[in-house]
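Postdoc handover notes: sequence design on the structure in folder B. Input tokens:
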């Protein structure tokens, strides 16, 4: 395989992580207006420096060629004091992303690509996930999960238990904290594990 093709694919994977990070900043800015939002952090692979691995793409996998890790979605942790306005939080996220897209900022992420984990401030107790459906309940199979939609727009994932290290990136990737304000841009996070960004 030609080196130029490998470099092009790696550039695309780095650009994808950057786009998710831009989206994290857009969503965080929208959520800062909600007094119940205590903090927002990027978690998951978008928060971490990317690492090389043999990808799922057949042509690269067959030849054992390593590429940067592929970020599939944006994982955010939100510490929230009240779940009374989760529907409004979802709408604010979607509107902010749509406006960023329409303004041609380079953010082409939509709401269902943002996986929002909800936590209780102080205890880090996992509360559920912010649902991406436009109504609650939506009548989808996912809505039949025990506890889903109680409170409205709090999605329950069957058998999901957060890994002990889920919030580890929050130590360096918290974007906003109530009472302090904006701590950093997600674009300031290191892009790769090789020292190159």
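Designed sequence:
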């Amino acid at each position: 395989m030609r080196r130029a093709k490998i470099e092009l694919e790696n550039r695309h994977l780095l650009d994808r992580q950057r786009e998710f990070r831009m989206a994290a900043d857009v969503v965080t800015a929208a959520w800062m207006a909600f007094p119940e939002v205590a903090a927002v952090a990027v978690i998951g692979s978008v928060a971490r420096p990317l690492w090389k691995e043999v990808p799922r793409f057949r042509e690269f996998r067959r030849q054992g060629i390593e590429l940067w890790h592929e970020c599939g979605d944006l994982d955010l942790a939100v510490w929230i004091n009240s779940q009374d306005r989760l529907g409004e939080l979802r709408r604010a996220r979607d509107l902010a992303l749509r406006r960023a897209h329409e303004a041609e900022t380079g953010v082409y992420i939509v709401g269902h690509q943002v996986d929002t984990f909800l936590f209780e401030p102080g205890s880090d107790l996992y509360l559920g996930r912010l649902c991406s459906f436009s109504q609650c309940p939506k009548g989808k199979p996912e809505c039949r999960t025990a506890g889903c939609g109680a409170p409205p727009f709090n999605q329950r994932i069957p058998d999901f238990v957060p890994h002990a290290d889920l919030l580890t990136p929050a130590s360096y990737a918290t974007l906003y904290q109530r009472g302090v304000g904006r701590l950093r841009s997600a674009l300031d996070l290191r892009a790769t594990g090789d020292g190159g960004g």
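Context for whoever picks this up: The helical segments are 3-31, 58-62, 86-102, 170-173. Don't rerun without checking with the PI first.
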